[in-house]
Specification:
eight-stranded parallel barrel, His_biosynth, lyase, HisF, 271 residues, Imidazole glycerol phosphate synthase subunit HisF, 13 strands, Aldolase_TIM, 33% helix
């Protein structure tokens, strides 16, 4: 049986100048601009045929604050598809409270890299299906990595970063993906800092390197400029899901249009 490929819209949520939650969109994790209200956008995407929905509190880890669980709860009331929530999740108790607020899955990045045992603890307590390990990857063209790919004629490796891409770790993405899988992660959420917000396409070498190394489902993220990019990351990297933000937020393409494009090219999707 062939599993359908998933199309997943994502909102990056931060607090505005008045302390209210708001959705922002940027490029390379910077130059953020106001995009909309998280609860209203969740409602729209639920009605638009999204397969899942991702809510990322993009500054919770960097600012050392808790995830906006009240907003998560309001969003959960509007979506009847799997909801993944990330940002500021540091402990088993944080996982529990986020799931209790209405999330179906939690996405963990910084805390898992700092203490990998958290992956095991979360998977054991709540089930692997609830634990998504998020990777904010960037290319490095030096000899410090473990797994190398050819990108534009140069050899590079992919480094895990933390705190919203603000800090490097010297940890190879592929090696971390394999460890996260071995610790019980149910899914891997692979973001490319280099491609983020560019609309130039997903980082296929990055996504393929991870997909080739693990059996855990992989969500490709960052850089989607249209349906052809989703097709490429499915056909060339074998991703299990494609996440996008800008093209949906600004009405450039609808989820339906992306899925119809894929279906016409024999990519199995839920229409």
């Amino acid at each position: 049986m062939t599993l359908t490929k998933r199309i997943i819209p994502c909102i990056d949520v931060d607090l505005d100048d008045d302390g209210n939650p708001a959705v922002y969109t940027g490029v390379n994790f910077e130059d953020l601009q106001y995009t909309g209200d998280p609860v209203e956008m969740a409602r729209q995407y639920n009605e638009a045929g999204a397969d899942e929905f991702v809510f990322l509190d993009i500054t919770a880890s960097a600012d050392g604050r808790e995830t906006m669980l009240d907003v998560v709860s309001s969003v959960a009331d509007e979506v009847f598809i799997p909801l993944t929530v990330g940002g500021g999740i540091r402990t088993r108790e944080d996982i529990k409270e986020t799931l209790r607020a209405g999330a179906d899955k939690v996405s963990i990045n910084t805390a898992a890299l700092e203490r990998p045992e958290l992956v095991t603890e979360g998977a054991t307590a709540f089930g692997s299906q609830c634990i998504v390990i998020s990777v904010d990857a960037r290319r490095r063209f030096d000899e410090q990595g473990e797994h190398y790919e050819q990108v534009d004629g140069e050899s590079c490796w992919f480094e895990c970063t933390v705190k919203g891409g603000r800090e490097g770790t010297d940890i190879d993405v592929v090696e971390w993906a394999k460890e996260a899988q071995s610790r019980g992660a149910g899914e891997l959420f692979v973001n490319s800092i280099d491609a983020d917000g560019t609309k130039d396409g997903y980082d296929v070498p990055l996504t393929k390197a991870v997909c080739d190394s693990v059996s855990t489902p992989v969500i490709a993220s960052s850089g989607c400029g249209g349906p052809e990019d989703a097709y490429e990351v499915f056909a060339d990297a074998n991703a299990d899901a494609a996440l996008a933000a800008s093209i949906f937020h600004f009405g450039e393409f609808s989820i339906r249009e992306v899925k119809e494009y894929l279906a016409e090219r024999d990519v199995p999707v839920r229409l």
